Amino acid sequence: MWRAPTILLALLLCSLGTSARISASPAASKEASVASRVATTANETNGAPKVDHWAFAPVSDPKSPPVRDISWPMNPVDSFILARLEAAGLKPVHAASPWEWLRRASFDLTGLPPTPEQVSAFQPDDTGTVPESRYAAQVDEWLSSSAFGQRWARHWLDVARFAESAGKERNHPFPEAWRYRDWVVDAFNADKPYSEFVREQIAGDLLATTAPPERRDALIIATGFLAIGTKGLNEKRREQFLADLVDEQIDTTTRAILGVTVACARCHDHKSDPILQRDYYALAGIFRSTETCYGTTGDAARNRQPSKLIPLERSPRAELAQEPQRAAPARRRPSEREAKLQGLPDNRATNALAMGVREGRVEDAFFLVRGEVTQRSGRVPRRLIPLLGLSSMDPMPAFESGRRELAAWLTHPNNPLTARVAVNRIWLHLFGRGLVASADDFGLGGHRPTHPELLDHLARRFQAGGGSTKSLIRELVLSRTYRLSSEADPACQAIDPDNELLWRARPKRLDAESIRDTMLSAAGTLDPRPLRGSLVAQMGNPQDGARPLGGRYLVERAGERMNHRSLYLPVIRDAVADVLDVFDFAEPSLVVVQRDETLVPAQTLFLMNSPFSRDQARAFAQRLLRHPDGDAARIRLAYRLSLARDPAPREESRALEFIRSESLARDTRTGKPAGRDEAWTLLAQALFACAEFRYLP
Length: 697
What we know:
single chain; mainly alpha; two-stranded antiparallel sheet; 29 helices; 46% helix
């Protein structure tokens, strides 16, 4: 294919970039040129059908609507909500109690319950209220804690289908996947601007070529987003493997960032959205020109599709020196075999390694009739899909894959989907349902927003605020809408039974990680420190011939014995730990925007009878018994640690009676009194198993 015009354009751009270095860095110049190319041809359609769909239209800039009850709104969010309620003849219910808000917000922002000290600080004054300044100060404390990043990283990891194994028939381990997990945690804690967050995951390796040395490793690790998906390592045909790999990357990228299902056009034009099959293969060429490094070499009989990892600039031994929790005990030096089992780096290694992507051989993808790799019908020039009225940037540069341009297109200010999708997910995680209920589908097959003006207002604010996730969360959590009680009002229920207009809060069940972490927290056994590394590394590096993962023993052992936050439990495809799986952990092979929320007997049985639950109940009981101020004080502490509130007088008296009676009850095996330890353990189990423990009001 003749590329002379493209090469001339590239030379011209390079010369412009050189002259601009007086006032801008090379990286800034190159990114600016890419962004300008997106902007200059904003009306191209490339033959794609034009569709009048709200999500593809430019983001509007609506003004805060007038309301009759001007005393109710605390910020513009409340005005948009109240205006819709008043138009429907509805009134919002009363506010939640300070303790209810405290527990709700603590879990939403950190995934952990409020501490007893925080519960005490939210004791209402003589007027029955808590000063507004205390609400704001508490939110700021949560946002600045490392627990915030651990909580909100998990939401993105669901979308990014994070796992530490390849899945499918040959479930090889990904012992370096943890680096991407930690990069996401660090990004949320640093409040990385969302546009940077997206660009670095799509083209971090390209950005790294001109980045300062201290940032290069992180930029490479960010591209793990494209590398951690499922891999059909048992596939004999290389072309089929690559086609499936590219399809998985297209599907994840477009669904995670744009909320549209571009991969549906692999075999035919999209059934509902304006995406042609040729658009799919134009995009596929970008990923075909990218080498995916996931790190599973070794015995070809067990892995027919080998891959290496990307060397980082840092030394693995230097990493280990900064991570004492991963080092071997000082009492003796581990053998080489033991070091491998512990996941310690080899002394001979000179670089740490990472999963990620890098530039491959630049080539356009073949158009595959019905998606069959054996039915090629000519190559499709690489370009971006004209879905959003932005430039398709055709032709792509001959010297790069096009991922740099793809990243610029995804994050362009005129892209109407990226910001809308992002703020809708933030709303979903705080309010239990998105303003667009189909949070994973903004296409024609999805739902319309219940509050379109509010959605665009938030998208505009998000963009104007530099894509700050923390700022948007702060505004939402401090709104009066977020503070509403979850109690039902029969009059409102009759008019709006699904609570689409948000006249009350939506009760939410805690997710799997929060349930496990709260049990550890109440028992006093939680280690809140970040865990660098992963237990999966202990299985050995597949580059050294490690066998595919069975996984079940590892994850169950970790789920029962590991006291770090659940974020750091090994995530092995097809072998998720029971403590997570029973409470609807996200399927790690899929893009999951919103988890299922089931209510089944197995959940209560797990909380009552599993070894993990019993161990934490015993530790919880021992923590309470160490409290010196008597049984009544112990019961109040038990309620604060497990339910983040004080017991009602009747609850306290019943709990005291339970402790007295169970302490004297006879053990059916020995005939002796069960004793106080067993009585307090039973009380702890009862608190863990109650519905209030699992649900946010």
